[in-house]
Every structure is written in structure tokens, then in C-alpha cells.
Amino acid sequence: MHAVEETPRLSTFLSQIANGLVLGSLIALIALGYTMVYGIITLINFAHGEIFMVGAYGGLATLTYILPTAIATTWYFALPIALVAGALVAMLIAVAMERFAYRPLRNAPRLAPLITALGVSVALQEAMRVFYPGATAALPFPNLFVEGAVVIPIGDGVVIRYVGILLVVMSLVLAFGLERFIERTRLGRAMRATSQDRDVARLMGIDPDRVIVLTFAIGGALAGVAGVLYGSYLNNINIDMGFQNGIFAFTAAVLGGIGNIRGAVVGGLMIGLVKALAGQYMPGGTAYDYVWIFVVLIAVLVFRPQGFFGESERVRA
Amino acid sequence: MSENPQTADGAVPDPGAEVTESVTEAPPEEVTAELADDMHVATGTREPILVSSGVTMQFGGLRALNDVNLSLHEGEIIGLIGPNGAGKTTFFNCLTGLYTPTSGQVVLRGKPMPQDPARVTEAGVARTFQNIRLFPSMTATENVLVGRHVRMKQGPLSSLLHGPRFRRSEAEAAERAEKLLAFVGLTRFSEELARNLPYGDQRRLEIARALATDPSVLLLDEPTAGMNAQETEATRQLIFAIRDLGVSVVVIEHDTKFIFTLCDRVLVLVQGELLVEGSPDEVRGDPRVVEAYLGAPPEEVSAQLQTGGATVGNGTAEGKSE
Amino acid sequence: MTATATPRTPATPAAMPRHTGRFAGLLDVAAPRSTVLMIVGGVLTLVGAYLPWATFVLNEGPYPEKATLNFFVAPFGVTGFRLHLVILGLAAIVVAALRRIPARHRIVRGLGIGVTVVALINGLWITVEGGGLGAITASEGSIAFGSIVALVGGLVTVLGASAGGLERKPVWTWKLPWWVEWVLLVVLFVIVLLLVAAVLTSGGQGGVVNPYAGVVFLSLLAALGGAFAALNASGLLTWVSVVSERHRTFSVIVLLIVALLLPLTSAGTEYWMTVASNIGVYAATAIGLNIVVGLAGLLDLGYVAFLGIGAFVAANLSGAAASQIGIHLPFVLVMIISSVVAGMFGAIVGSPTLRVRGDYLAIVTLAFGEIFVRSAQNNIGGLTGGANAIPNIPAVGVGDFKFSDSIMIGSLRLPSGVLYYFLIVLLVAGVMLVFAHLKYSRLGRAWIAIREDEDAARAMGIRTGPIKILAFLIGAMLAGLAGAFFAHKTAVVAYDSFRFLESVTLLAAVILGGMGTIPGAVLGASILFVLPEKLREFSDYRLLLFGLALVLIMRFRPQGIVPDRHRKAELTDPDVEDVAKEGPGPLPTRVEP
After folding, report:
1. A313 falls within a domain
2. Within C378-517, where are the H helices?
3. How far is C8 from chain B (nearest CA, A)?
4. Residues near B136 by Cβ (< 8 Å), separated by ≥ 6?
5. A271 CB near a chain C CB, below 8 Å?
6. Do C461 and B3 touch (CB under 8 A)?
7. Mean pLDDT throughout C462-485?
8. Is the pLDDT of residue C69 over 50?
9. For an interface test with C, which of B93, B149, B151, B211 has the most C Cβ atoms less than 10 Å from its Cβ?
């Protein structure tokens, strides 16, 4: 009797954990871009969420307008092509944004780039709404991976779709690769040097502008990949998805300690779990899951602004 | 209609372009007398007003200050010298509540020093900063008026209503600001933005702003850094005048000649420890100072110290480390 | 009559200015003939204005009437944008010919730019409407070179003026007897009133009914802009502002009266009263935000929530059927309660400022704003009506008399909504007074000091924590006041009016107008809320343009239209950062002890 009641509860709980991890790894992918950009030029790039959105539309456009149907419906062709296309479109937009909107303000007071970021965010979202055919409403997005799901036989069964597993694996692999890149390669070292002190890095022969562009490009590409995976997992995309998930991602980046790759991943996963579990168990249900994330954000900023993995206080000359 | 040429730049002085010379004369005596009346900080006590006993400051594994004792009497000018990284600015920060000492205490007029810069200022200790920290986009007058903040009584409501009491207190503050600017010789720049003032005048404005809080103790962190000989001399005169206001002064400085000709007493801080304390003559002659100070052959340095020509270290290096 | 002024650099043809930049060569060639070029440009403008502009017959509507596109019907009685061109062109010729006018090149350049933009706007529009370049050149036997000639005229004027060397703005020191200055100010303010009314009503209401509204409005704006630039170049505007500063109280009173007279002008219709009231609501809110952002330097990205809180509180106390609390309080009391409640929330939202600085604070405020919207959307506690909103909020009224009624004064009938307009004018005036009084007080100086250098402010004895929270509290109270008005005026309060985008718009209004200044916030709010109203035919692109405009403003005029003397330097000169940087620091995560 007792056990019968327990197992469905347990399965619900585990299902929400699984949902949370999938959503969380998606947010982690976006958060990487936030955390890198903030780490290097201390700019909260509000438009980064829109880059993610643009990536999703880039992938969809490739599938709808460029690829022949035969290829677009064969997952092992469509998936890599869409991912690359999404990443490229997002990367291009991110680099253009850096070049034309942020770079001229490199030495301006901090308010100016922040407002510019807001402007870019609004403009990108609206440009997509106005110019992408049918973007005024949510657009269907095909699942680009094998249909079906793993079912763990606990209680009513915990269903994890294959595409969800793909999402988690890809996020972890990309984040790991990024960390290796930053730690091991010459360019990665240049990035770290630039984030420590741009002027000194310049003296060491590093061109900060190139490093910053690289940062935007990598962050953009990751967001583009996240966009395509998002569409593939949720099977529809809309122009609002960028702002929402962008804020989640920023929260994740702060949670993990801004500038910290591993922190961003853990932060993303935590946000995903908070959203999934709060939607299930907190009063108000899914209508308020959003609110709990913001509560977490405020609490972290107020009580532990350096995040869970950040250095306690970085002092710069 | 008569012609009265008036040019666009004639009305407003453009100090950045036209005036590079800072004030070099001492404050006029009548201004000093009036100000001393207004500020009314001297009490005539014989007791030391500021006492630090056993102040120790530990940053992780680094002991920046070790058991530093100081007692400041009313109307006294104390100099604090030492090589770069000796802990002078750290000591200032302990005195002004920016840092809480790891052990030891600071006592002002018998009461423990509050651990909050705002309250420290309220209690009567004002400071200037090694790297000038004015409010760059406020005028000189406004900067000084901000200094009056703690001595003004207007609350939000009276600010809102602008009643007669508000206007009286504003008028008083404005008058005081005017006197203080005259005192430091910046009357002609009263309506100029602080960021447009020549460098030396920015330092003087910072002093005026600190004096606006009616301090009984004024802490000056390298007041002559980056100044030429004339400006340095003017600063010396200014500090004497400040003492005449009844304000006790502690000065950090690298320029030993400046310190030895200014101060009643000199403290030498080396690696966080108080090495020597005494009159300028005693300190000047002390071989330990010479040795610890520069680590150079004592005779040479000693000669330099004797003539008062040595300028130790440079301000900019330490300024950046903060 | 005490004195007059002369320009700093009298027109000395001997000293030809050297030009640099992209057009240096062209300007050097044009320099010796600058006066001739300016006059030629003016003449071309006149000719262009009198030539036909379109080779086709435009649709009916106010545009053809106003613009008299048919040259031969009324050869000399041009109206609309062609009249503006005639005026600008004549002015350019006269100023160019009178060598004794100081800064005449700069004045003429302003006029020329006005002509160019007016010709460009109308020419482009006719081209688009007529389906190709044929519409403004020759087609099917009719010719219409008006726009091209006027455009060339404008460009030649600008070329001549720029080539002649731009003088410094002269400074005038006239001091007239006080009563003359008073009369002058009254006349000027009335002219401003008429201009505002003309701008508001130009082209009529926008939208489907009137496809010409946008272009007529833009054209008028361009013409006024040209005239304004010319006046500014002459130094007269500066002089006027000095005079009005000399009679400050008088100016404020006259301005208030003049604002109250708007219903008597052509803008005195219900529609424009409503638009003006909405502008007022956002202007009042923007001034509140200006305290937080402009004075104290604390970026708030969720500010519109306070307007929302005020509106929802008022809606619930209004006796509306959908309200949870079934009581109906007098409006004045409702306003006070709304304001206090909003202020309390302001203090809560502001409390993280004790520990969080800079960008992170912006994010905290954004999070609070989102929590508010989400909660309102989900009808939290039944207080917000959720997706159904709170409809049918009764109008403010005493007994049977409603504020939404039209009123009769003698035989003069004022449109409905006029009382709300009066109310909001007084409200905005009150809010401005609050802002001005606070700015020039111990509190205002403390806010600015915190903005400039928080650590130094603390060293000056300012207890930064409470003072920062006070900024949030007072700002939120002002927004709450506006919210109470908003609820009654629009009669419906829905969560949808208080989204993130509205916060960004408010922030944009503050920045566009000029941070820390009083006219700035009002001007910014007016621009941002009048433009979409007038340009409905572009409504699809509204937000896109808004976003791009934000980027461009930050790039090219970050100090706004009316720069604060204090702020100006800070936002334009990167050097200041070196000093200011000490405050927030690169990583604004510092937890204060």
C-alpha cells in the first residue's frame, strides 16, 4: 500500500530531474557565451539570448528553404547540417554585433554598452519577427534526432527522449572542449590574459580586439547550437525564446561564478533543476516556475555574488 | 546700442587649456581666522585626541601592519614616512574605518573609532586620497557642499519642501563652501567641474572638501604627489594654516624634505612596523632609518637625508597598487 | 538697453578656413564662393517649392490639400511642406546676404539641412507612393522636378555654408527691462504651445484612416528641426534660456499655464487629450526613474513595475466590479495609498543595493520586474485579474460629475478627457518640482556623489545604503502616483502594460532626453510616445527602429538631447572613466563590509 503510493511519486520526481537536466544543459550552453563575454569585457550581453534565438531560426531556415526534403528528413544528414548552419548564423550575428555595436563603445562608461545591448536585443528580436516568414507566431521545428525514448521502469515509468540525451551529451562535450581550448591552446591563453588585463595583454603582443571577436564568435556558435537543439527538443520555436532563456543563462553564469566555464555548466544544470522541480512542487506550479528562478537569481546576487565557483573577490589594478 | 564684445570662451574660464599653474600663495589670514571661528574644532585639551594602540593588520599570510602605536595631540602635525609597501596607506585605512584591524584599536577622544567610513567622518576624522577621489562631474563648490553633508540637518522632507529652515541651512553651507574655497585659493574655480581643474588644484579641492566636514583630525595621503616645488611650498603653507584652524593633521609623504620641515613629529614605518618616532631632527639623524629605509650605503643616504634632499620612492608606483 | 554682442570671429573673408575630412577638397573649392552658393541654394529651394512635386494624382486626403501638389492651381499660395521650404529658403537667402549677421554660415547650414531633409522625406515618400522615380521626374507627359530641385538647393546651401567656415556660437548679453523680458517670454511660450499643437495634429491621426499622417508629421518635424538648428546657431536660443533662467519662477508659472491651454488649440480633441495624458503618465514615471538612474546612478531595468503596482492598487480601490477589495475610496486617497505601496516595493527592490553594485544591480532589478509581471499575469492573490485584467475602472469623479465628461465654460466646449489632461499636467508639474527640489538639496548632492564615486562619498560621511534605498523609494512613489492616474484614465489595467520592454522604453526616454535633467525626461517620454502614435503606418517596424535607435543614440549622442551639465562630461569623455572606475570597479561584485 505504502509502496504503491511511493513509486509514482518517485517516478514523477525522477522525470522532473531528467527534464531539469535537459533544460539545464541547454541553458548551460547559452551561459557559456555570457560568462566568456562578461569575463573578457565585463559586459552583460543582453543580446546573447537573441543570438541563441537567431541560431534556431538559422537552423530552421536551412532545413526549410535550402536542404532538399530528402536530406532534411534524414536525421544523420539534417542534424549536423542544421547544427553547423545554426552555429554559423549565430556566430556571424554575434561577430557583427561586436564589431558594429560594442566595439565603438569599448572605452565608454559602463551604462552605454549595457543600453546598447538592450537595443541590439530588441532590434534582433524584431528583425526576426518582421523579416522571417511566419515568425509572428511560433513555428514548428522538426526533431532532428532519432525518435523514441529510454523508459526507466520505475513506477509509471521515467521517460527520457533520445533527443534529450543528445542535448545533455552535446552540451557536456562542448563545454569540456571549450575548457580544454581555453586552458591548453595559445588562443585560450590569450583570452585568459585579456580577461585579466587588456592593456598588459596588448603589451604582450596579444591583439585584444581579435581575442574579443573570438570570444563573441565562440559564444555565438555555442548559442546557435543550443538554438537548434532547443528546437529539436521542444519541436517549436518562437521569437521570445531568446529573452527568457537568455536571462536563465545569465542567472546560470552568475550562479556558477562569472567567467568560470565549469561554473556555468553547473549553474545551468541547477537552474534547469530549479525550474523543473519548482514547477512540480512549489505552490503555483508551472505558472510560477519562472518566478523561482528569479528568486534564486536575486538571492545569489545578494548573498553570494561571486557565485559558487567564483573567486571571492577579484581585485584589479 | 553700444557694442560690448563678449566671447564664448571669455565668460567661462577654461582652466584645462589656459591655466596650468596652481595656486602658490598661503591662505589669507582673515579667511583662516573666520573659518576657525566657524569650524570651532579646537577644544584646548591636553589629552591626545587620536590614539592607535597595537594596531595589527593581517591580509591572509601577509602582515601589513604590526603593533603600530600613535597618539596625536590637538594642533599637532604628524608625518608618516616609509618606503613603498611599508603599510602607510593601510594604516590610514585602519584609522578611517575602511579596514577593521586584525587586532589593536583606534580611539578618538576616548571613544573607539567606528568601523564605517561614514561614521568616522561624522566623528570628526576626514581624509584625502592618494589617488585623487573627487566627484569629477560636480563643480568645485558642489564637491565642498558634499563635504558639508554630515553637518547639515535637512531630511528628505525638508529637502522636498524647501522651507525657510532648508534655505537657511543651504545658505550657511554655501557660505562655508565659499570660505573654504577661498581658504585653499580656488575661488576663481568655484563653478568649474572638478575634473577640469589643474592637478594641483584638484588636491587642494580635496582638502577643502575634507575640511568641510569640520574634522578635528585630518589625514592627508601624499598631498604633494606630482607637485612642483612652488606647489609643494604652497601646500606646506596650507597645512600650517589648517593647523591654525585647530585641526590636527597626519601626513603621509615620500618627500622627506617636505615632512621634516612641516611636521612636529615624524613616524617611520618599515615593513608594517613602527621603526622610529621622534622630532624631525631625531629621525633625520637615526642610522636605523637610513639603513632600513633604502638598504643603501648609510653614509650616502644619510648625507641626503641631512640635506633634506632625498625623495624616496615614487608616488605612482604605490598609487597603482591600490 | 545695455548691450549687444558681436561674434567671436567677425566674417573675415581674408582668412579662408582650411578644411579637413572626407569632403575637404570640395569644401576648399567652394570656400571662396560660399555666400554665392548659399544664395543659389536658397533660390533653388524656392524654385523647387513652387515646381510640381508629383507626376500622378495622389489619393484624396489631407495630404494633397495641405501640400497643394498641383502647382498650377494655386501658384503662390503654397501650403504644407512647400510653405516650409519657402520659409527656410527665404531665410537662408536673407541670412546669407547679410554679412553682418554673426555665425551666419552656421545658421544657414541649419536651414540647409532642414531643406534637405524635408525634400528628402517628401521626395522619397512620393517616389514610393508613385511607384518609382517617374513619380518625381517626368512621366506620361507631366513633369515634376520639385523634389529634386529642392534637394539640390538644400545640398548646395549646406555646401556653401560649410565651405564658408563654421563660426562659434555667439553669446548675447542683452538685458532688457524686466517687463519686456516677461512679455517676450510669454510670447515665446505661446509660440511653443502653438508649435506643439501643430506638431501633434499635423497630418491628423495616424493609421488606416489617414495614410499621409506619418510623412506630413516627419516633414514638419524636419522643417522645425532646421529652424531650431538655425536659431540655436544664432545663439538666440541660449540667450532665451538665460533670460528664462533670470525669471525662473515666472517662466515656470507661464509654462504651466501655457501647458494648461493646450485644449484650446487645434490639439483640443478627445484623441489628443488622451495621447497627451498618456505621455504625461510616462513622463512622470520617467522623472521618477531619473532620480534612480540619472541622479543616484543606479540602473533599474524593472522600473515599470512600480507604475504597475500603483495602477493595480488604484484599480483595486476604485470599486471596479473585478477588484478583489470591494471598497471605493476617494481618488486623492487612492493616489496616496498607491504611491505609498509602490514606494514600499521600491524600498524592497532597492535593498539589494546595500550589497550589489553596477551591472549586477541592474540584473536584480530586472528580476524583480519579471517577478512582478509573472505574478500579475497569474492573477496573484486575485489582485491583478491575470489575463482578464481589471476592466471597467470607474472614472474619477465627484458625485455625478465625471472627469471623463466634456465640460462647457460659457459657450466654449472643451473635449472630454480634458480634465484628466489638466490633472496630469499638474501631476507632472508636481513631480518635476519634487525632482528639482531634491536634486538641489543635501540629498540630491549625496545621490550624485554616490553616482560619481561611492567610496569617496562614504568617506565624506554619506551613509550610502539608506540614501540609495531612498532614491528607489522616492522614485517608486512617483511612479505609483502616475500609476493611480493611469488606472483611472485608461479604465483598464492589465499586466501586459508593464513588461520588460516598457521598462526599457522608460529608460530610453530618460537617456534620450538627457539623464539627470528635468526637461529631458519629459522630452524623451514625449518623443517615444508621440512617434509611434504618428507613425502608425510603420507600426510593424516600430520596435525594430526603437532598438536600432537605442544603439545609435549610445553611439552618437549618449548624453541625450538636453545634456546635464554634470552628466555630459561623464558620458562623452572616456578619460573620466579612469577616475570613475575606482567606484564600481570592473567586477561589480564587491560585497560591502
Report:
1. no
2. 418-439, 442-452, 454-459, 464-490, 500-513
3. 5
4. B193, B194, B195, C452, C453, C569, C570, C576, C579, C580
5. no
6. no
7. 95
8. no
9. B149
Q: Are B88 and B269 in contact (CB under 8 A)?
A: yes
Tell me the pLDDT band of B306, cut-offs 50, 70 and 90: low
The whole-chain average pLDDT of chain A stands at 88
Q: Is residue A310 part of a domain?
A: no
Whether residue B254 contacts residue B225, with contact meaning beta carbons closer than 8 Å, is answered with: yes
Residue C525: how many other CB atoms lie within 10 Å = 29
> What are the φ/ψ torsions at residue C581 (nearest 5 degrees)?
-60, -30
Q: Cβ C461–B145 below 8 Å, yes or no?
A: no
| Percent of chain C whose pLDDT exceeds 70 | 85
Domain containing residue A255: 2-303
Q: Which residue has the cell 522623472?
A: C287
Q: How much is the ipTM here?
A: 0.89
Using DSSP's 3-state secondary structure scheme, residue C17 falls into coil
The amino acid at B278: G
Residues ≥6 apart with Cβ < 8 Å to C175: C2, C3
B&C contacts, CB < 8 Å: 145
Q: Cβ contact (<8 Å) for C452 and B147?
A: no
pTM score:
0.85
User: Inter-chain contact A310–C590, Cβ cutoff 8 Å?
Assistant: no
- What chain C holds in terms of domains, given with CATH numbers, is 24-244 (no CATH), 268-391+412-580 (1.10.3470)
| Spatial distance between the Cα atoms of B234 and C278, rounded to a whole number of angstroms | 59
Contact A301 C363 (CB under 8 A): yes
Cross-chain Cβ contact A114/C359 below 8 Å: yes
Q: How many helices (H) and strands (E) does chain A have?
A: 12, 4
C-alpha distance from residue B69 to each of B99, C536, C558 (Å)? 16, 75, 51
Chain C contact set for B136 (CB, 8 A): 452-453, 569-570, 576, 579-580
Q: Of the candidates B95, B44, B98, B47, which has an alpha carbon nearest to the alpha carbon of residue B69? A: B95
List chain B residues with CB under 8 Å of C581.
none
Q: For residues A36 and A181, is the Cβ–Cβ distance under 8 A? A: no
For residues B163-173, give the mean pLDDT.
Answer: 91
Q: Is B135 helix (H, G, I), strand (E, B) or coil?
A: coil
Q: What is the 3-state secondary structure (H, E, C) of A185-246?
A: CHHHHHHHHHHHCHHHHHHCCCCHHHHHHHHHHHHHHHHHHHHHHHHHHHCEECCCHHHHHH
Q: Looking at the domain assignment, is residue A246 inside a domain?
A: yes
Write out residues 43-62 of A within 8 Å (CB-CB) of C: 44
pLDDT tens, C269-281?
888 888 899 999 9
Instruction: Please choose, from the candidates C453, C437, C464, C457, the residue with its C-alpha nearest in 3D space to the C-alpha of residue C592.
Output: C464
Output the domain CATH number for residue A125. 1.10.3470
Rounded CA-CA distance A262/A270 in Å is 12
Contacts of A301 in chain C (CB under 8 A): 352, 356, 360, 363-364
How many structural domains does chain A have?
Answer: 1
Superfamily of domain B24-133+213-321 in CATH is P-loop containing nucleotide triphosphate hydrolases (3.40.50.300)
- What DSSP element (H or E) covers A184? helix A162-184
Question: Cβ contacts (< 8 Å) between C432 and chain B: which residues?
Answer: none
pLDDT digits 0-9 by tens, C320-345: 877 777 788 888 999 999 999 999 99
Burial class (CB in 10 A: 0-12, 13-18, 19+), A316: exposed
Cα(B36)–Cα(B211) distance, integer angstroms: 11
Residues 555-574 of C with CB under 8 A from B: 565-567, 569-570
Give the SS3 label for residue B86. Answer: coil
Domain range annotation of chain B: 24-133+213-321
